[in-house]
Design brief:
The protein has about 270 residues and is an alpha+beta fold. The chain is built from eight helices and twelve strands. Strands 1-2-3-4-5-12-6-11-10-9-8-7 form a twelve-stranded mixed β-sheet, with helices on both faces. α3 crosses α4. The longest helix has 15 residues. The N terminus is likely disordered.
Length: about 270
C-alpha cells in the first residue's frame, strides 16, 4: 500500500510504523517527520507482511526501508524500489541494519535496468559534550561577521541543505528549533538550522554560500546552533554521507564522534 503524504496528515497505522521504526536503532528523524505528518513524503507497506516491511521517503529525497520481516518481503520491496527508481529526483535509500547484508543493490540493478544504482556509506555521529566544550572558544566567525538567530527570511536561504527542503514554511521552521545565521553588511553567508527534531535530539543542517566559504562561518553557526540545542535541554545530532568530507571533518571538529556507519543506495 502506498500513501502519498501531505503535511499534518499522519498515515493510517502510523503508530505501528513508529513503534517499528524505534526498533531500527539509527538516526531516522527524517522518517519520523513523515510518519508524524510534519512534512510531505511517501509511505509504503508490504501487501504480504504489512508493517513488517515498510518504506518511507522524505520530500528531500532521503528514504528508508525497515521492518522485522523485511527479508520475507524482499522481492516485493525490490519491486517497489524499482518503480521508485524511475521517479523524478535523486533518492538516497538507507536499509534497516538488520537486513543490510541482503543483496539490495545487485537485485535493484537487475530490476531497474537503465538506472544507475550506487552504494555509499552514511555516518551517524554521537555528540561528545566534553570534546565540544574544550574546543568551543575556537568557533568564532571571521572579522566583520556577526551571528544572529534565524528569522523567517532564512527559510528561503539558497543551496541544497536548506530549510525549504525540510519544512513547509518559515513558521514551522522557527517553531521546531529555528537556526542561526552569519551576517555581514546585510548579507547572510552561512546558516545552521534544525532539520529534524526527534525525541530528545535535534539534527543540524548547515549551508554556506560559495562566496563566503573558508572563513570559519560553518563552524561558527553550527556551534551557535549546538549551544541553542543544549540550552533547550536537547541533544545535537549530526549525520552525513561518508564521502562528504567537509561535513565529516566539521562534525569531528565540533566534538561529534562517528557512532554508526551504514551502507545506503543512491539512484
Amino acid at each position: 500500500m502506498v500513501i502519498m503524504m501531505s503535511p499534518t496528515a499522519p498515515p493510517a497505522g502510523a503508530r505501528r510504523l513508529i513503534d517499528s521504526l524505534d526498533e531500527v536503532g539509527i538516526n531516522a528523524g527524517f522518517v519520523r517527520a513523515v510518519l508524524d505528518g510534519t512534512v510531505a513524503g511517501e509511505v509504503w507497506t508490504s501487501s504480504a507482511v504489512g508493517v513488517g516491511a515498510a518504506y518511507a521517503r522524505h520530500g528531500y529525497g532521503m528514504s528508508l526501508i525497515w521492518g522485522d520481516r523485511l527479508a520475507d518481503a524482499f522481492d516485493e520491496v525490490v519491486a517497489h524500489l524499482a518503480e521508485r527508481a524511475g521517479a523524478p529526483g535523486r533518492e538516497w535509500l538507507q536499509v534497516d541494519p538488520r537486513w543490510a547484508g541482503l543483496p539490495w543493490a545487485e537485485t535493484l540493478r537487475r530490476a531497474a535496468p537503465g538506472f544507475e544504482v550506487t552504494v555509499d556509506r552514511r555516518v551517524n555521529f554521537a555528540f561528545d559534550a566534553e570534546r565540544y566544550a574544550e574546543r568551543r572558544a575556537a568557533f568564532v566567525p571571521a572579522a566583520g561577521w556577526t551571528l544572529h538567530p534565524a528569522e523567517a527570511a532564512e527559510f528561503d536561504f539558497p543551496g541544497s541543505v536548506v530549510p525549504a527542503a525540510f519544512w513547509r514554511d518559515a513558521e514551522q521552521l522557527l517553531a521546531n528549533g529555528g537556526g542561526w545565521r552569519a551576517e555581514r553588511d546585510g548579507s547572510v553567508g552561512a546558516l545552521a538550522f534544525s532539520s529534524f527534531p526527534i525525541y530528545d535530539g535535534v539534527e543540524i543542517g548547515i549551508e554556506t554560500v560559495p562566496w563566503a566559504r573558508r572563513q570559519g562561518l560553518g563552524a561558527a553557526v553550527a556551534a551557535a546552533m549546538i549551544d541553542d540545542v543544549l540550552d533547550r535541554g536537547s541533544v545535537p545530532l549530526w549525520a552525513c554521507r561518508r564521502g562528504n568530507e567537509s561535513s565529516y571533518r566539521l562534525a569531528m571538529r565540533l566534538g561529534f564522534v562517528p557512532a554508526l556507519e551504514l551502507p545506503y543506495l543512491s539512484f
